[in-house]
Write a structure and sequence with these properties.
single chain; mainly alpha
Length: 66
């Protein structure tokens, strides 16, 4: 099984994934001062939204009930 996954990754997935350079995007877009500032100042409200809507009423693997 592991040989099959290795072959699938090397022959099928890696050529498609190698077209995209996510590190360049991080350096040019994500890791900028204004983005960092916005995320830092918005962190607590974002945490509150996440906590409120993260499915805390759902059982692990179960449906979410609101």
């Amino acid at each position: 099984m592991s040989v099959a996954f290795k072959l699938m990754f090397e022959n099928e997935l890696f050529p498609a994934f190698s077209k995209y350079d996510s590190h360049t995007w991080r350096k040019t877009i994500l890791w900028q001062e204004d983005i960092d500032y916005t995320l830092k100042t918005s962190l607590e409200p974002l945490k509150a939204v996440y906590k409120r809507s993260s499915g805390s009423n759902a059982l692990p693997g179960g449906k979410q009930y609101m």
